[in-house]
Amino acid sequence: MYKKLFHLVLFTLISLSLRAQAAVILQYHHVSETLPAVTSVSADTFTKHLNYLKDNNFNVIPLNKLLSALQQGQTLPEKTIAITFDDGYNNNYDEAAPILEQFGYPYTIFVNPKLIDEGQSYVMGWDKLKELSKKGALISNHSAQHNYLHIKLENETTAQWKVRIKQDILHSQQRIKEEIDQDYKYLAYPYGEFSNQLQTLITELGFIGIGQHSGAVSKDSNFSRLPRFPASGFYSNLETLTTKINSRAFSITNLTYQDSVTQNNPPKLTIEFKMGSFHKTQFACYVSSIGQANLNWINKNTVEVTSPQALKKGRSRFNCTAPSIENPSSYYWFSQPWVIQ
Questions:
Q1: pLDDT of res. 154
Q2: Is the domain covering 21-246 a CATH 3.20.20.370 domain?
Q3: Which of 15-19, 92-96, 107-111, 318-322 has the weakest average pLDDT?
Q4: Which CATH number fits domain 254-340: 2.60.40.1220, 1.10.10.10, 3.90.226.10, 3.40.190.10?
Q5: Residue 88 region by backbone torsions, left for phi larger than 0, else alpha for psi between -120 and 50, else beta
């Protein structure tokens, strides 16, 4: 009896520890009713998202505090979340910022400095970004002009590509530092696309890489490919978004695949879990536009995930989930993005 009680207490403490060292990052683009619906959310829906966070006692903190805590293995409060925007559109200033200010919620905007310097009309200028930063917004790097960073130019060698992308990232970072006086080394990958080589490069530069694939983040996450949950367009439905907001991060020891950007189709993914407070029988993966993935458990901790058929060209995902044993209404969530060439 005492042995069973000991194991129960130990399991509970481990489960709480895993949850306390995990968090969720939300990603938005437009807060608008007139721009493309696929990347937009209305002011009314955005307000409902924030009301949900408030009514359910979420701990909304700045992205730098969230990432720093995870990297240092610090304990985060339950239900910790960060809010981010990509591209720095004018409607972030006109629509999103006033709503966020009413709630007192911090947020991060990833911007393209070259587009700002060119005076592109659809993005905020440095003056607006500086104003928001003085109110607490973090301004960070989204590359110079939102190009596909992993794609090499015609006849460009890997060494030449590396020099070009390094210049892009570092010059963009310098412009943000000059204009905003912030120097958070976070790079949100344009279009959420990244390759192994790009991950290696941004790590060498001392940056954290942030994508657009789904999932919670934890101290065990790969900080060159952190996930975020998109919350705009199709993904703005609060009924489905709440499941994601309350999700947990699988504790993964090793992740093996050829490359996120690949001609290998269908690709294969191997996941080795450190420990799982979930049942293997309830673990499932789904392939974008195809359906349930094939699972092959190599041993008690390692599973191979493959698609039953070739993926479409362009962006796809494997989304893997499992209900938590300690809280079956909460799901562990992991997403593997692919760019099929």
A1: 96
A2: yes
A3: 15-19
A4: 2.60.40.1220
A5: left
